[in-house]
Amino acid sequence: MQPVTTIHYLVLSTALLLIGTIGVLTRRNIVIILMSIELILNAVNINLIAFSQYHHNMSGQIFTIFVITDAVAEAAVGLGILIALFRNKETVEADQIDLLKW
Amino acid sequence: MDTAFFYFFALLVLGGGILTITRRNAIHAAVCLIVSLIGVAGLYLMQKAEFLFAVQIILYIGGIMVLFLFVIMLVNLDEQAKERQFNGQRWIALACVVVVGAQVYYFMQKGASAFQLGPAAPDTGAPVTGNTEMIADALFNQYLLPFEIASVLLLVAVVGSVVMAKKRI
To answer: Which is deepest, A102, B4, B19, B58, by most CB within 10 Å?
Structure first.
């Protein structure tokens, strides 16, 4: 088997990014859309860590910590909005929340 | 051995991801996402980022995913699981994925020689300190201001989520 290079990690993170994009665009359940956003952020993290290791530079790992912090904030606020939405409209489906559509 | 571990973790990551976006039941999707995040944590460990491995396990799997599971139990998803799971944007999603994938493939082909992404750069001697010490050194010297701003961001998120989820303010 050939050794693992940075390209392997880049291909893997691209695949994970595309899976997350498909999830965001096609699912109707808002909880699963939020989970797909977590997948996308993890793809970014894999990329950052791969380049950090390749260049022997710590900045990539620091940025990964900030991305994880953002993911925590986003998940907390997103799920708070979801609970408020469910209390008011009794639905968690993205295409039934069409108040601003015409 | 390294290669075998890489493919094992890649299988966990991609298999967990695909199952996450296709499961009908939201709790099953959350469990598959946990599998995917464990795979990502393994990849961190393979790239000598031990601190981030621990952060991934504790924060993502122990924090965010438990939050997700709590919310799934709070909002009643039983009747939603019986309905149609996908909206009519399948072809738009496919077009987006093909365009982005083609772009990334093109630039990887072009950049592989320009950036010499073949074998990794040789290790410049033995590391004098561990991974956690190096991260702390960079975080508290070079990136101190972003670190403080991140704490303000977390405060805003905490207050915001409490205000959102409260019945009457």
So the answer is: B19
> Which of B11, B19, B75, B84 is the mutation pick for testing A, counting most A CBs within 10 A?
B75
Q: Which helix (H) or strand (E) holds A18?
A: helix A6-26
- pLDDT per residue as tens digits for the range B92-146: 889 999 999 999 888 888 877 666 555 555 555 555 577 888 888 888 999 999 9
Q: Where in the sequence is the domain holding B153, given as residue range(s)? A: 129-169
- CB contacts under 8 A, B 34-53 vs A, are 36-37, 40, 43-44, 46-49, 51-52
Residue A1 counted as domain residue: no
For residue A35, what pLDDT band results from cuts at 50, 70 and 90?
very high
Tell me which residue range forms the domain holding A33. 6-96
CB A80 within 8 A of CB B75: no
Instruction: Give buried/exposed letters for A18-37 (b at 16+ CB in 10 A, else e).
Output: bbbbbbbbbbbbbbbbbbbb
Give the mean pLDDT of A12-24: 93
Q: Which residues contact B164 (CB under 8 A, 6 or more apart)?
A: A77, A80, A81, A83, A84
Q: Which of residues 58-117 of B touch A (CB under 8 A)?
A: 59-60, 63-64, 67-68, 71-72, 74-75, 77, 80, 83-87, 89-90, 92-94, 96-97, 100-101, 104, 108, 112, 117
Q: Is A6 on the interface with B (CB under 8 A)?
A: yes
- Give me the interface pTM, i.e. the ipTM: 0.91
Please check whether residue A101 lies inside any domain of the structure.
no
A:40-79 residues touching chain B, CB 8 A cutoff: 42, 45-46, 49-50, 52-56, 58-59, 61-62, 64-66, 68-77, 79
